[in-house]
Design a protein that fits this description.
Length: about 675
């Protein structure tokens, strides 16, 4: 991180310098640590510039110029999500910064950093990646400005954008540049996007620039009647030939100008992006921005278990750089946690995990995970024998996937679980159960918690997993995310019906009782999601009261680039379906006041919201929910509406029937 450290190592120059918006923590939960250690494994000298002062290029010169390229990332979080709440209010904290202080990175950090790198040392390739760049690889709707923006590669003036899991693509790029290739000629790496002026040479295309259009495009740059021999094939074409369903062709998407002018074309473009995410059958995408185009290559091949083990077995120090003197909250939260897998095949509409890391779950071996737990014991100061988590996006997806190789290589479903569980999906969660048992059998382990999300519709298909979880790995409260209970809202969230939650709760209560424990489920819900009406929110509020639950914090839907739900929010169309001329629009709540109303309905118990909720109930023809009986959501007007104080606030607090009866007696 410093010139002094380079001098001690005997380095005259770094091969690669990684720039990140996070404080540098050498822990495998931080992307820059993984990428830096992986490049080091392949023999490259790697420098890290963490949270540089972006107001000038001076701080970007601290390690001198990199020999091969700059690698730029906004950090583990999108900088705009890091800075602003779902209601566009400025946050005052940053868990990835020492002291939890906001302001250590700029808005749209990937773009700002990339331009400063270019300014600091001219002529050195600039590569952008990470979640912020990955989700902006194509023309996209920007919630914070309410506009459609270009692919970030143009505004960042980057040479290459790497999306998704970056290990394969970053190492390939480093090796090819090290071998002397010109960055301008490297346009074929999987998981990359580059700027071009013409379509890929010699490759046929399909014009799908509007819904219903499917017109072949003749390849350019190849003499008619001349057949290429195997020796003439590029490395990429030889690689593609190893996958039986891979198709060496590109799709012409609607242009940036078109999607900016026509919301239906925008929705269609997002349909194309999500339809080409299976790395085994995906095609390249080409989208023009004026007289230039962004060429999005096919997604990276998922990491094998051996590759995952290699990456996570690298010599991480598992702590922040010693130059930091204040605590870094993100590190404190995960320092004793272990990543077991990546990717998610759930396909929730509001989520971008699959768009970034892929729908195919990539897992480590049990032995590698147990080695890391031993490493935590030896490396983490003050370790008391408690592992805070073993998991990933969904803990119970560990080692699950498609049982039919042929089907997997040609599948274009975004979700293996919605609208129904795919018949080819392996739902046997015994590998996760066996992993948990081996982890807690280690002599120095006192407790292993599972804090990652649990996919409920998977769990109920394998009750033994729920029993294991409830009996040994819950701290007393288990957080789950049914998101809603109304069928209309769940349809557009691409989530299962409320019966899934009911079944899971039944198992949870039964197994908790059998283990002699009194434990609670803490469900999370989203307000203002596309397709969610005020009537849906009222239905959810009634359900909450029936189950004696009072929401203390509510998450409003947050439109982030490349999610299906964001497309619904902006266009009113679901990109998970083909867009047709007669496709009906989707109802979306927009504007601060309307969003505040839906949020208030879930907090039906807060006196500050009573008048707002009464107004909504009257407009929806549900006056019968206003009054003093147990079935009512809010009391009639004129009653005491003084806010109740809560000394120990949590995400949800159970409201007992006794407290409801007591309050009703007071009102009477």
């Amino acid at each position: 991180m410093t010139a002094d450290e380079m001098k001690k190592l005997g380095w005259r120059q770094c091969d690669v310098i990684l720039v990140t918006g996070d404080a540098y923590v050498d822990h495998p939960s931080f992307a820059m640590a993984i990428l830096g250690r992986t490049l080091e494994y392949f023999g490259f000298k790697v420098g890290i510039i963490a949270q540089p002062d972006w107001h000038s290029a001076e701080d970007f010169k601290r390690l001198g110029p990199p020999r091969l390229f700059w690698g730029v990332s906004a950090g583990n979080m999108d900088s705009m999500v890091n800075h602003y709440t779902a209601d566009k209010k400025i946050r005052h904290d940053d868990a990835y910064t020492p002291g939890n202080v906001n302001g250590a990175r700029p808005d749209r950090a990937a773009m700002v950093y990339a331009n400063r790198c270019r300014e600091a040392f001219k002529g050195i390739p600039v590569v952008i990646g990470g979640i912020e760049a990955s989700l902006r690889r194509t023309a996209h709707f920007d919630y914070w400005s309410e506009t459609v923006k270009r692919s970030v590669i143009f505004d960042a003036k980057a040479d290459i954008l790497l999306y998704g899991n970056g290990e394969h693509s970053l190492v390939e790029l480093a090796l090819r540049l090290n071998a002397g290739e010109d960055i301008r000629c490297i346009t074929d790496i999987r998981g990359s996007a580059v700027i071009v002026r013409t379509p890929p040479s010699g490759m046929p295309g399909i014009d799908m620039s509007s819904p219903g259009k499917n017109t072949p495009i003749e390849p350019v740059g190849v003499l008619e009647g001349v057949k290429k021999s195997d020796s003439d094939l590029t490395d990429l074409e030889r690689e593609e030939s190893t996958y039986p369903n891979a198709r060496a062709e590109y799709i012409l998407m609607p242009s940036y100008d078109d999607v900016k002018a026509d919301q239906k074309l925008y929705a269609h473009s997002m349909y194309l992006v999500h339809n080409e995410t299976n790395p085994y059958c995906a095609r390249k995408l080409l989208q023009y921005h004026g007289d230039r185009a962004v060429l999005i290559n096919t997604p990276p091949i998922p990491l094998t278990t051996a590759e995952m083990d290699l990456i996570y077995d690298l010599p991480y120090q598992r702590r922040p750089h010693p130059s930091y003197h204040e605590k870094i909250p993100a590190y404190e939260m995960i320092k004793n946690s272990v990543t077991s897998m990546r990717g998610c095949f759930g396909g929730c509409a509001f989520c971008t995990i699959a768009a970034h890391t892929g729908k195919f779950v990539q897992c480590r071996s049990e032995e590698s995970i147990l080695r890391e737990i031993n490493d935590i014991k030896d490396r983490v100061p003050g370790f008391a024998g408690v592992i805070s988590d073993i998991g990933g996006p969904s803990a119970n997806m560990y080692r699950l996937g498609c049982k039919n190789l042929k089907a997997m290589q040609s599948c274009r479903r975004e979700s293996c679980l919605f609208p129904n569980v795919c018949r080819f999906l392996d739902t046997d969660q015994s590998p996760a159960v066996n992993l948990y048992r081996r982890a807690r059998e280690l002599s120095f382990i006192k407790k292993v918690f599972i804090s990652s999300g649990i996919r409920l519709d998977l769990a109920i298909l394998y009750p033994e997993y729920i029993k294991e979880l409830v009996t040994y790995h819950v701290s007393g409260h288990l957080k789950v995310a049914p998101e809603h209970i109304a069928d209309g809202a769940l349809r557009y969230m691409h989530k299962p019906g409320v019966h899934t939650y009911d079944q899971f709760e039944e198992y949870f209560v039964r197994f908790s009782s059998q283990s002699g424990k009194h434990q609670q489920i803490i469900p999370y819900f989203i307000a203002c999601h596309p397709g969610t009406t005020d009537e849906d929110m009222i239905e959810l509020a009634v359900w909450l009261k029936k189950h004696n639950l009072q929401v203390d914090q509510v998450q409003n839907f947050y439109p982030t680039p490349l999610s299906n739900a964001t497309t619904m929010y902006y266009t009113g169309f679901d990109p998970g379906e083909k867009i047709k001329d007669n496709t009906p629009g989707i109802f979306c709540v927009k504007g601060e006041i309307r969003r505040r109303i839906q949020k208030a309905i879930l907090r039906y118990h807060d006196p500050e919201n009573y008048e707002m909720i009464r107004d909504v109930l009257r407009k929806c023809g549900k006056d019968y929910l206003i009054g003093n009986s147990d079935r009512c959501l809010v009391p009639a007007a004129g009653k005491s509406e003084k806010s109740r104080k809560n000394g120990n606030r949590c995400s949800f607090r159970p409201a007992s029937s006794e407290s409801f009866n007591k309050n009703n007696r007071k009102r009477k």
